[in-house]
Amino acid sequence: MKFDTLPHQCLVDEMLQIRVQGLRAGERLNLKLWSCFNDAVWRSEAVFLADSRGVVDLSTQAPVSGSYTGVDSMGLFWSRAPVSSEIAKGYDGKSTDPLTATLTAERDDGAPPISHAVRRVYMNEGVVSRKVRERGLVGKMFEPNRPGPHSTVLVVGGSSGGLAWSQEVAALLASRGYAALALAYFGAEGLPPTLDRIPLEYFGTALEWLGAQPNIAADQVAVVGASRGGELALLLGATFSEIRAVVAYVPSGILWPAYPASGNGAWTSGGKELPYAKTLTYEQWDEALATGNAREGSFDWYLIPLKDAAYANKTSIRVENINGPVLMISGIEDRVWPSTGLTEFAVERFKRLGFRHPVKHLAYADAGHSIAWPNAPTTMLKSKHPVSGEEMDMGGTPEGTARARQESWPRMLEFLSGALGSG
């Protein structure tokens, strides 16, 4: 029994061909994938029956039981979940590097199992990175280690702040040939502690700084953001004409207030807060439920105020001013906020005002809020927000969100290539 050739290191968004040969026809094979995140052991498991040639191939065969169903070459990766301390003992002796996953294969006849460790990284050897602490900016720059000029992507995260999401996306984009600046705008040293009255001029400074870098193609700049960063990506595209393409994950076409709530707006321009929408108060929500005007368990507390067309227009992002194509990606079962419905406000505005560039909204059934690069675990649907401490329900199903990640990521890369040229 042996694995077909597998890499010892690759990018996290790469698909692997997991194949085991040397079995007897019809023999049961137990595959497990182990890894360690945040001092917890994560594991997935699937049982297969070898085909007539004595081969198990995850790209063509579905498991007969396990942590995922159906044919999925990367099912073991996204279906990983934390395990009990007793089960975690099976991880003894394996790598504690959070980027390393260890695949094990065990047959029923008692033969020793085989294993293969693969380190899945965000940045390949052809990328160089550096901290950015100039002109009040807090970020991290990733660039291909070859002469430019390079098409460039500004990457902004959401309400978690800092660089946690943005630097991972930026590193992956740089590994695909783009220069990418992961930019924090709150929640980092020297910046506001929360998403509260963030001046758009800060992002203008970042664009000026990018344009002054020697290996940057200043006329080929895109912005990518997620959640409140998706809202921000649309807003930046509508504000700065040097941005030539926008990618917004689980975004909103409507502007919203500070988070956590402070009574202020999230964004300012020229020292003035931009108009923003408010959700129903608890009292208004209770009244709407009592009168039958709201649905229990729905996001009507977001959407009811926006039924007022004048109010929705006042708080809408002026997306018609974006100077290039737009890709928006949402999960229909998002439980953090109704990203599909909020994205449709932007879609409707594009159509109504005759936007001259291509617009695409990819809305995925059974997918929740955490759509990004593929193959990451999607099993943890609930978590505590790192800034507010609120309990967050990401929504969707693990499989639905995994499918959305697998399908949307290459389409996002294709979109950037078409908008800016290949990386």
UniProtKB/TrEMBL annotation:
Lyase among keywords: no
Annotated catalytic residues: S227 (charge relay system), D334 (charge relay system), H369 (charge relay system)
Keywords: Hydrolase
GO MF term set: fatty acyl-CoA hydrolase activity
Alphabetical list of Pfam families matching this protein: BAAT_C, Bile_Hydr_Trans
Gene3D superfamilies to which the protein is assigned, alphabetical: Acyl-CoA thioester hydrolase/BAAT N-terminal domain, alpha/beta hydrolase
Keyword flag Hydrolase: yes
Region annotation (Disordered) ranges: 382-408
Domain Acyl-CoA thioester hydrolase/bile acid-CoA amino acid N-acetyltransferase positions: 13-134
Residues in BAAT/Acyl-CoA thioester hydrolase C-terminal domain copies: 198-421
Biological process, per Gene Ontology: acyl-CoA metabolic process; fatty acid metabolic process
InterPro entries the UniProt entry points to: AB_hydrolase_fold, Acyl-CoA_thioEstase_long-chain, BAAT_C, Thio_Ohase/aa_AcTrfase, Thio_Ohase/BAAT_N
Annotated family: Belongs to the C/M/P thioester hydrolase family.
Protein name: Palmitoyl-CoA hydrolase
Species in which this protein is naturally found: Hylemonella gracilis
Lineage, uppermost ranks: Bacteria, Pseudomonadati, Pseudomonadota, Betaproteobacteria, Burkholderiales
